[in-house]
Amino acid sequence: MPDTREVMWFRMADGPSLEQARLERQPDGATLSGTVLAAERGRPLRVDYAVTCDHRWRTVQVAVDQSFEGVLRSLRLGHDGAGAWTLDGRPAPSLDGCIDVDLGVSPITNALPVNRLALAVGETGSVRAAWVRFPALEVVPAEQSYERLGARLYRYRSRTSGFAAEIAVDADGLPTDYADIWRRVADRPGGGSGRG
C-alpha cells in the first residue's frame, strides 16, 4: 500500500499562485505530482506535473502538461539514473550529468536533492539539475547547491543565476517555507514514517 500525503502552497512573489501537490511513496521509489494555478504576467497559467523517482530519489521520468494563453503544451523527460536524459523521446545531451529535475513553477522538486543527498547538519552538496522554465517549457542544465543549516533548514543556491534562499522542510523533505516566495497553507499527512 503506498504512503500518500497531500500539501498545498501559496506563492507570494512574482504573481500569486496556488499549488496542490501529492507525494506517493512506494517500496521502489516515489512520485511527486500536482497542479499549479498561477497568474503569469496577468494571464492564467495551469501546470499539471508528475515526477517519478527511484528508491534513491533520482529522477526517472517527468511529465508536464501546461495550458497558457489558450495553448496546450506537453513536455516529457526520461532519465537513466546515471545522467543521460531524453526530451520528448529524443536524446538530450545538453542535460548530461543532471541527476535531479527542477520545476521552476513549484517548490516540490527541492525534496529530490534534500532526500537524495541526506546531508548532515553543516554539510553542503552540489547538484546539477534539469531546470524546466515556465511558461517557455525550456529545459536547461543548472548548477545548484544545498547546505543543511539545521535539522529541517537548508540554504539553496543557484550557481547558474546567483539566486539563494533558505528553505524550511518537513520530515519528508517537502518545503514548508521557501524564503518569501512559497508558504505551505494546507497539509494532509500520509501514513508511515518520514525522514528523520
UniProtKB/TrEMBL annotation:
Note the SUPFAM superfamilies from the entry: PA1994-like
Q: What protein is this chain from?
A: Transcriptional regulator
Task: Write down the InterPro entries for this protein, in alphabetical order.
Answer: Glycolipid-bd_prot_put
What top-level branch of life does the organism fall under? Bacteria
